[in-house]
Each structure stands twice: as structure tokens, then as C-alpha cells.
Amino acid sequence: MESLGNYLLSALILSLEILLVLGLLASIFSFLGKKNTTYIYRCFGMNGLVFTGLIGTVVHEFSHMLFCLIFRHQIVEFSLFRPYKSRYDGVMGYVNHRCDRSSPYQMVGNFFIGIAPIIVGTGCMILLMRILLPNEFMASYQTFNRNMVYLSNINSIGDSLNIYINIVIAIIHNLNPLIGHNWPRYIVFIYIMYSITSHMDLSKEDIINSRSGLFVFVIMTYIINLIFIVLGIRYQIILLKILISVFSFLTVGLFFAFTTMIISKIFDVFIG
Question: I need a labelling partner for 16 at 20 to 30 A (CA). Which of 90, 100, 112, 213 fits?
């Protein structure tokens, strides 16, 4: 019974830690996005938001649609980009959907549909890095693989944290503008990155939608964590690899968003 109690407690603690980190990342993403939007609007007005929204808003709304399809929600109405109407109502795009509230799968989908712009936006930028900056991508990918090998030898949370930090630092280093790049490709990458991260912040509706699936998400995360923990150390390492991969992935997106905000702040200081 004591062993079972330890399993249950460990799964609960891990689930709460995952939820806390995801919530923190989502909050920082939204803060940076709103700051960035403010700086762009102060410098360039609505034209600046439309210019970045041509890519950023489309990616934002498409991400909602994609996760609606994955979690079998019915899409009632959508608009990926409204450059003209948004000048009057401030809504640059939207996706209206509904689900079967008796279905746990569709309910947990609300959580992922709400935070989809962060997931898909980060994925698009990593894919973009693979296409436009292949050397920088491969250097980061090799660092990632090397650190994943060390996971079987970790002895503490500190060890896994060091691996996570090493991966993130390597990716940031490889995108350093002071090192040699293919500059035409690098400039295109920066523009698309700027456009996507300028529109990755979660709207009030996104947050409300995520909350409606939060409880089911916590329960499902708890059950998955419990299964991995009960199966033993080998499977716990697999779980740890998954978590480090996901959080490294999202932290890179956070770095992109922070870089975008700094660029917008520079515009605001010198132009606004």
C-alpha cells in the first residue's frame, strides 16, 4: 500500500509540475505577444499589424482549425485573415467551433485548441529553420541527440535540468546573428519568425476555451504519468525524454517571441 501511495503521489506531483510549466510558458508567451502588438501598433498603426498578420494571423487561426480537426470538433465558421474588416472591429481572424461535452476526448481538445497557436507557431518556426537555415538546424539537432543519450545516466532533477538548458542554449547560439549565416535566407527567416511570434499571444477567448478542457487534461496527464511510473525506470526515462523534448521545443518558441519583442521595442524607441 505504501508503494502504491508513492506511485500516486509521484504521478500527482509530476502532473502538477507539467501544468505549472505549461501555464507559465503560456503566460509569458501572451505577455510578450501583447507587448509586441502594442509596440508595432504604436510605430506603424494598423498597417503594421496587417503586414505581420498576413503570415502570423493565418498561422494563428490555422492552428486552431488544425486542432479542431484533430479532436473532432465541428468548425461552425472561420476566417483566417480579415485585413479590411479588422480595421473596424479589431478582429483579424477567428475560428468558431463546438464539441460534444460528453466526450472526454473532445473536451480535452478544448485545452489544446486554446493553446494551439503556441504549439503550431513554434513548430512552424522550427520547420522554417530546417528549410532556410539547414546548417544551424543540424547543429542544434545534433546537440539535442547527444544530450538525449545522457538521460539514461541521470541521477537527479538537476541532471535533467542541465540537459534541458544545454539544448536550449545550443539552439539560441546557432541562431546568433553575429555568427556566419546565409544572409538572404536569414533575413527571410527573421521576417517570418517576426510575423508568427507577433500573433502567437492567446486571446481572452483562447484562454477561456483552454480552461474548459483543463480538468480533463489534468486527469489524462495524471493517468499517463502513473502508468509510466508504475512500469519502472526504463519507461520513466522515456517519459522524461518526451517532457524535455516538449519543453525545449516550447522554450525555443519563447526565445523567438522574446527576440521579436526586442526588435519591436527598438522600433518603438526610434520610430514611435
Answer: 100
Which of 270, 138, 255 lies closest to 193, judged by CA? Answer: 255
Residues pairing with 95 in the sheet: 78
For 162, the domain range is 26-267
CA 101 from chain centre, in angstroms, equals 26
Is the residue at 4 inside a domain? Answer: no
Instruction: Write out pLDDT tens, residues 160-194.
Output: 677 777 777 877 777 766 566 677 888 888 888 88
**Residue 217: partners with Cβ closer than 8 Å, 6 or more residues away:** 19, 108, 111, 112
Domain count, the chain: 1
Is 129 a domain residue?
yes
The confidence score (pLDDT) of residue 96 equals 92
**What's the CA dihedral at 37, 86, 192, 70 to 10 degrees?**
110
Reading phi first (left if > 0) and then psi (alpha if -120 to 50, else beta), residue 187 is in: alpha
What pLDDT is stored for residue 151 in this prediction?
62
What's the Cα-to-Cα distance from 110 to each of 12, 206, 228, rounded to whole Å?
Answer: 22, 9, 25
Residue 142: the pLDDT is 83
Examine residue 13 and state whether it is found in any structural domain, yes or no: no
Classify residue 36: in a domain, yes or no.
yes
d(CA 48, CA 182): 27
